[in-house]
Design goal:
Blueprint: H1 3-9, E1 21-26, H2 44-50, E2 54-56, H3 78-91, E3 107-111, H4 114-123, E4 128-134, H5 143-150, E5 153-160, H6 166-170, E6 189-192, H7 200-203, H8 210-213, H9 216-219
Parallel strand pairs: 1-2, 1-3, 3-4, 4-5, 5-6
Helix pairs in contact: 3-4, 4-5
């Protein structure tokens, strides 16, 4: 039997391996009052990310991540603190350490004040690989919490828009500082998207291509911790 006939009669088995990436979605203020929220696995954004082998771990109706999403601009930040604690228990249940998700595989995509929830979680000790914050208000009264959280965040990408996003500015009210800061000073990378409003890159399919055109989805695939 010739080599060619041997190969044709016993074709090689090709094993195609596609790297899978997972993320936990943390919605912003009042998200529970909207239907088809971007953070749900049925959303257009989640389905787009699935098309690139990036899966939403927290959007399933059977076991969603949940926080109050109430507006919490007072000094106590009780909703953000409680949301951060819930996020920690969701990812790394302290009574069941064997069930915790490895830090190297833990990625967060957060919208608006969902960032404050994530920062409280990381400041309290939750270790994550990558944080992507979208349209999140940069609050002066969260500066110390963000500094404490930063050591537990492997990589931080902050995506913001321009003056089309008034809610990012409104989200800084009562923080003790006048004016608005679009970029986050502690992020490894800040990206501006013109005319995207408050979270268009998560909710408007016209912006979804930017996740791979600009490499935002790519940062979720790397290991930083």
């Amino acid at each position: 039997m010739t080599l060619i006939s041997l190969v044709l009669s016993n074709p090689p088995t090709l094993k195609m391996e596609t790297p899978l990436t997972y993320y936990v979605a943390v919605p912003g203020t009042w998200a529970t009052r909207r239907s088809a929220e971007w953070s749900e696995d049925r959303s257009a954004f989640s389905k787009f990310m699935q098309g690139h082998y990036c899966y939403n771990m927290s959007g399933k109706a059977s076991s969603p991540y949940y926080w109050s999403t109430d507006l919490d601009l007072s000094g106590g930040h009780q909703d953000w603190r409680a949301g951060g604690a819930a996020l920690t228990y969701y990812i790394a249940p302290p009574l069941f350490p064997s069930h915790r998700y490895p830090p190297a595989d833990t990625n967060l995509i957060v919208h608006s004040h969902g960032l404050q929830v994530a920062l409280y979680a990381c400041a309290a000790g939750l270790q994550i690989n990558c944080l992507v914050s979208v349209s999140s208000p940069v609050r002066e009264d969260m500066a110390s919490i963000a500094t404490r959280a930063r050591k537990n965040i492997g990589y931080w990408l902050h995506i913001h828009s321009d003056w089309s996003d008034r809610w990012q500015w409104f989200g800084t009210l009562l923080d003790g500082k006048f004016g608005i800061t679009r970029e986050h000073p502690l992020a490894d990378r800040n990206e501006e998207v013109e005319a995207a409003g408050h979270g268009g890159v998560l909710m408007d399919p016209n912006f979804f291509h930017l996740w791979y055109q600009r490499g935002w989805g790519g940062v979720l695939r790397k290991v930083y911790v």
